[in-house]
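PROTEIN DESIGN WORKSHEET
SECTION A - STRUCTURE
LENGTH: 227
TOKENS:
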């Protein structure tokens, strides 16, 4: 059966401790449903519209009003959660020492400059769009002679020159993603959430490895968005 409602293109969600959490990249906000609302949303996802109860119908209208859902197929996507590997299946990238060269410094300087300008000039949807563009246009041939472990080690070794301890995980992850794409290395920018208390976090991963965090730490989060 063709769905009659769609998830807005800028929205993603996950199920966390029995409730549903939404991330709306369009306005960089999170929405946590109650347990009743979570059950209603499950019906919206799984039950034909003609079988919806009145509370479910009213809740669907509320989600449409908040632009979580849309009736326009061209503006929406299928209502489904992330299907990539969960954080619990990831492992930490082993510590690795690698020689640094002028190219590493110049590339990281350029990556940090681009990311800083991007963060200042664009809202969150614009930053997400830029990150996707960097990944799609990365020079794939450039990474053939580059070892990902060595590049990540170079990034972490040089980080004190470019970042302070106050820099948020989002900005550091964005810079690492740009740094890697400049070498043609494919990686994912992952956003996760947890409850009790609520907290959002993000990290970079590739080939089953967490590149800028500890795998034990990211296990506490449920994946909600992968770029």
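SECTION B - SEQUENCE
RESIDUE ASSIGNMENT:
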């Amino acid at each position: 059966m063709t769905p009659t409602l769609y998830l807005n293109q800028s929205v993603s969600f996950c199920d966390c401790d029995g409730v549903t959490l939404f991330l709306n990249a369009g306005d960089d906000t999170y929405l946590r449903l109650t347990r009743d609302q979570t059950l209603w949303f499950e019906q919206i996802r799984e039950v034909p519209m003609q079988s919806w109860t009145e509370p479910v119908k009213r809740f669907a209208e509320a989600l449409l009003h908040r632009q979580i859902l849309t009736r326009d197929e061209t503006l929406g996507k299928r209502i489904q959660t992330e299907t990539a590997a969960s954080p619990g299946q990831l492992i930490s990238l082993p510590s690795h020492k690698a020689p640094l060269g002028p190219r590493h410094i110049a590339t990281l300087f350029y990556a940090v400059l681009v990311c800083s300008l991007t963060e200042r000039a664009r809202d969150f949807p614009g930053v997400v769009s830029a990150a996707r563009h960097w990944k799609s246009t990365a020079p794939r041939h450039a990474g053939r002679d580059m070892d990902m472990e060595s590049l990540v080690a170079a990034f972490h070794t040089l980080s004190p020159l470019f970042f302070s301890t106050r820099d948020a995980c989002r900005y550091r992850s964005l810079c690492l993603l740009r740094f890697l794409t400049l070498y043609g290395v494919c990686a994912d920018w992952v956003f996760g959430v947890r409850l009790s208390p609520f907290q959002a976090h993000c990290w970079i991963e590739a080939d089953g490895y967490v590149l800028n965090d500890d795998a034990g730490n990211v296990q506490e989060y449920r994946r909600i968005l992968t770029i």
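SECTION C - NOTES
The mean pLDDT is 87.
The helical segments are 35-46, 54-65, 102-121, 124-136, 148-162, 169-182, 215-218.
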